[in-house]
Specification:
206 residues, alpha+beta, LEA_2, transmembrane, transmembrane helix
Length: 206
């Protein structure tokens, strides 16, 4: 009889242990789901993180006499606003690229950095060099129009690798891309001197 009671007691303890484990696992799962949902919601908010080209200076943008090599010297200043009150952002990779008429001209990298919550960070990049750019008739016509006006249209792309930080917890890595279209006045141009650069908002793509 005692043996039977001891066996029943062991079974009851085992059942309680299984139930307790199941409850703890369920609570942990709910916490993880809620945390991930909050992080994703915070990340996907349109006004959560804003990228803006705050400043630009173009001191050279000319073709060689044979119209094949494009020489350029461009400085860009980015402003990144993190309006989240609880999330920080690790930028493990920050690569900037510029394009003209769908031709990639150059790339520049920024060392990794961390942005705290409710903060604004300024990031600067410089693109200088030359690249082979073969324009068609339409592209050549566009370049001539922009040369006369002194203002050139360029596309900027940022390739990022980021991690969000919530308290002491870091999330997995996200790889968003940021795209900006800017119009920059050539510094040596008198066509529209004094107009200055108009800051430009960028679009984030996850």
């Amino acid at each position: 009889m005692c043996c039977l009671c001891g066996c029943c007691e062991s079974i009851v303890k085992l059942l309680w242990a299984v139930i307790a484990f199941a409850i703890n696992s369920l609570i942990t799962l709910v916490i993880i789901v809620c945390t991930v949902s909050f992080i994703v919601w915070a990340m996907l908010r349109h006004d959560a993180v804003k990228f803006r080209v705050q400043g630009a200076e173009l001191t050279q943008f000319t073709f060689d006499p044979d119209n094949t090599n494009l020489h350029y010297n461009l400085s860009l200043g980015f402003s990144i606003r993190n309006s989240n009150s609880r999330l920080g952002i690790h930028y493990d990779r920050f690569d900037a690229r510029i394009y003209y008429d769908h031709h990639r001209l150059a790339a520049a990298s920024v060392p990794p950095f961390y942005q705290g919550h409710k903060s604004t960070v300024a990031v600067g990049t410089v693109f200088q060099g030359q690249n082979l750019v073969l324009l068609g008739d339409r592209g050549r016509g566009r370049f001539e129009d922009e040369r006369r006006s002194g203002v050139y249209g360029l596309d900027v792309e940022l390739k990022l690798r980021t991690r969000l930080m919530f308290g002491l917890v870091n999330t997995w890595r996200f790889k968003p891309r940021v795209r900006c279209g800017v119009k920059v006045q050539l510094s040596s141009s008198d066509a529209v001197r004094g107009s200055g650069f108009q800051s430009t908002d960028c679009r984030i793509h996850f």
